[in-house]
């Protein structure tokens, strides 16, 4: 029977979380909002509108949302040609594909941003499909992104493992009924990830690759 390995991308396979923190901070600053970087860091992984709402509150002027998202997108886009893959990210995907796993990306990125991330990972030969934020009505922590990834893979939840780096990832995977693996390279504490539903925690893709025989992928 086929199995699916579903991966978040930002902070999980590509070392971009702190770039997102800096560029969101600058987008908020330009719009007159002083938002602490530590708060932005914990919100990374949410879709843009959800991130803005989480940080500015539901009583904010929502007419600013599109401008904030556009500013972040433009600022972050300056890094597209040099996004750094995390150690062994591409090799991990290729190893799982060789072992018979269908590798699917589940990410809030789309368009040129997704293309830049995939170039950084450099493992297109191992990626069977990609579920982006454009494909679902609700982003993480809703289960829809993971559920859509499973649909693309044609694999039931009980034969899938989801790998991510944020509490939003763990909550989405748990709600979708898949086993969840967390990596610490996104910068969040182990305890937070375990509380949100992580079954196992590794330092980064290289650590997971070296530990596959003892991991939920065994």
UniProtKB/TrEMBL annotation:
GO molecular-function annotation terms?
hydrolase activity
Q: Does the keyword Hydrolase apply?
A: yes
Instruction: Say which domain of life the source belongs to.
Output: Bacteria
Q: Which keywords, in A-to-Z order, does the entry hold?
A: Hydrolase
InterPro entries assigned to the protein according to its UniProt record, in alphabetical order: HAD-like_hydrolase_sf, HAD-like_sf, HAD-SF_hydro_IA, HAD_sf, PGP-like_dom2
Could you tell me which Pfam families the record lists for this protein?
Hydrolase
Query: Is Hydrolase among this UniProt entry's keywords?
Result: yes
Please list the coiled coil stretches: none
Q: What is its EC number?
A: 3.-.-.-
NCBIfam families reported for this sequence: HAD-SF-IA-v1, HAD-SF-IA-v3
Q: Which PANTHER family match?
A: BLL8046 PROTEIN, PHOSPHOGLYCOLATE PHOSPHATASE
Could you identify this protein by its name? HAD family hydrolase
């Amino acid at each position: 029977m086929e199995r699916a390995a579903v991966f978040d991308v930002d902070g999980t396979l590509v070392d971009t979380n702190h770039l997102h923190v800096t560029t969101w901070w600058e987008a908020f600053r330009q719009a007159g909002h002083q938002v602490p970087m530590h708060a932005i860091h914990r919100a990374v992984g949410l879709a843009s509108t959800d991130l803005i709402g989480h940080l500015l509150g539901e009583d904010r002027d929502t007419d600013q949302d599109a401008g904030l998202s556009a500013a972040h997108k433009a600022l972050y886009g300056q890094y597209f040609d040099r996004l750094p893959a995390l150690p062994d990210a591409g090799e991990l995907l290729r190893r799982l594909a060789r072992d018979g796993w269908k590798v699917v990306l589940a990410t809030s990125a789309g368009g040129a941003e997704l293309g830049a991330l995939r170039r950084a990972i450099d493992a297109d030969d191992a990626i069977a499909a990609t579920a982006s934020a454009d494909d679902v009505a609700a982003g993480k922590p809703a289960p829809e992104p993971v559920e859509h990834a499973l649909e693309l893979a044609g694999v039931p939840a009980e034969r899938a493992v989801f790998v991510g780096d944020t509490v939003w990832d763990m909550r989405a995977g748990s709600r979708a009924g898949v086993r969840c693996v967390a990596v610490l390279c996104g910068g969040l504490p182990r305890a937070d990830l375990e509380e949100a539903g992580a079954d196992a925690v590794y330092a980064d893709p290289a650590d997971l690759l070296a530990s596959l025989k003892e991991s939920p992928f065994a």
